[in-house]
Design goal:
mainly alpha, single chain, binds carboxymethyl coenzyme *A, 55% helix, 3 strands, 17 helices, 3-stranded antiparallel sheet, globular
Length: 399
Amino acid sequence: MPLIVDKGLGNTIAADTTLSFIDGAKGVLEYVGYDIDSLARNSTFEETTWLLWNGRLPTARELAAFKVELQREYAVDARMLDVVRSIPRTAAPMDALRTLVSALGHFDLEADDSSVAANKRKSTRLVAKTATLVALFDRARKGKSFVASDATLSLAGNFLWMLTGARPTASMERALDVCLVLHADHGLNASTFAARVTISTQSDMYSAATTAVGTLKGPLHGGANQEVMEMLLEIGDFAKVDAYIADKLARKERIMGFGHRVYKAYDPRATYLKTFAKQVAADTGNLPLYEMTRRIEEIVLAQPNIIEKGIFPNVDFYSATTYYSLGLDLDLFTCMFAASRMSGWTGHCIEQLAANKLIRPHADYTGPHGLTYQPIGQRIDGETSSSSPSVKTAMSVLA
Ligand code: CMC
């Protein structure tokens, strides 16, 4: 087959999936055929995870059994607590999470058992423990004692309990749960692709999950929600929004929380969250922040050509104020994205292995050819090994 150049792979289909469907032009997202809006309104993170992994909604008995399986896995091996404590308090939580997800594999006797059954059990462990690890690290870095997990709570409720040591209200638990549902899967996004690349080498689930956490961290992917909140706090006041955004746009800077590689219409996750975030903000006394986001949206969407370019608010724009209203530190926002997307990452890994093909694209080599090897003693500092213009061009690109 002739090779095609597709940098960023935006025009390449690299996998089949039955987990989620996106129509970027129409602004549609479905998990296994169910519209994201109906799942956000009616489902829970536990049910959504079961749906993604099993290709259908669970019965009441199946869901109850799955919740118990997850709840049994909230706690981590006691030796993991030492790993959590050994991470510098100054570490960014996403960096800590990357280390901790990797370390989980050391304490799982099934880490290298790649049977489907073992991979499903490890997926349950990874989903159950990721939120736990975030809560543990946050308490360790603040010098607080750990809070033992509570196996009677939902994953969202248990996370808030382990983070704060206080029982979350039903509306707080629901707010976090909705964010978890909305972030659980999203086609072949960058971190899911990274996970599938890793598992396609027949590596293990912990390695794939670790790769994915590292990939999610970037501000062009999962890191955007933190940057949205930093922007809102930097603006500080509704009256300053117009001037701040006008200045940013004049300097051709990107507004975080806007735009998407796939959606060229309103991100359907943002549609629901926009209304939901308002309620959460109102309940927690953060309505002024929410009003700022609405004003930013108005200004950005009124820009010439912006709608033609397909720039609309994405999921991170409205999840930022929701997480903030729940009292989460800004640098935990992306960790919550990871705790949710773990269900998608692990589901995609199992799907990849079911019909595996090593993912290995090509690179277009743009360097020189046919150079003569120069012994080290003949090389002069500051000079390239050849006067060939192609070498000089390549070197100037790299500089
Ligand atoms: N603000 C202003 N202009 C933008 C923005 C933005 N946030 N995003 C894209 N554009 C413009 C960009 O300047 C370019 O304009 P022109 O054609 O005149 O040069 C055009 O839109 C296309 O941009 P692109 O970078 O080629 O598009 P992309 O598909 O590679 O980028 C993106 C997608 C998400 C990286 C980008 O929209 C962006 O940087 N957004 C801000 C970061 C963000 O919010 N990321 C979270 C994504 S949603 C969560 C997730 O699923 O990961």
